[in-house]
Design a protein that fits this description.
Blueprint: H1 12-20, H2 25-32, H3 52-62, H4 72-81
Helix pairs in contact: 1-2, 3-4
C-alpha cells in the first residue's frame, strides 16, 4: 500500500511509482495529480493559447511554488519543466 501524502497528492500509488523511477517530487506530484496523465489524446490547448489565469490555475493544481509572482511566459516554462 502506498504512503498517504495528504491532500496535496491525489494518487499516492502513482506518485510512489514515479518517485521510484527517479522523478523529482514536484514532477511526480504533477503527474499523480493529473487524472488523465496516462491517457493519450493530446486534446489540451497549447499553453500559449491559454490565458495567464488558466495557466495560473493549472500551476496551482500541480503545485508549482512561486506562481503568483510569475509572468505568463514563466508559468509556461514552469509547467513544461515540471
Amino acid at each position: 500500500m502506498a504512503k498517504n501524502h495528504g491532500n496535496s497528492i491525489k494518487d499516492d500509488e502513482r506518485y510512489e511509482a514515479l518517485r521510484d523511477e527517479g522523478m523529482s517530487k514536484q514532477k511526480a506530484a504533477r503527474i499523480a495529480n493529473t487524472p488523465d496523465a496516462s491517457e493519450k489524446g493530446g486534446h489540451a490547448s497549447k499553453y500559449e493559447d491559454r490565458t495567464k489565469k488558466e495557466l495560473y490555475d493549472e500551476a496551482k493544481k500541480v503545485g508549482i511554488e512561486g506562481r503568483s509572482n510569475m509572468s505568463k511566459e514563466e508559468l509556461i516554462k514552469a509547467l513544461r519543466e515540471g
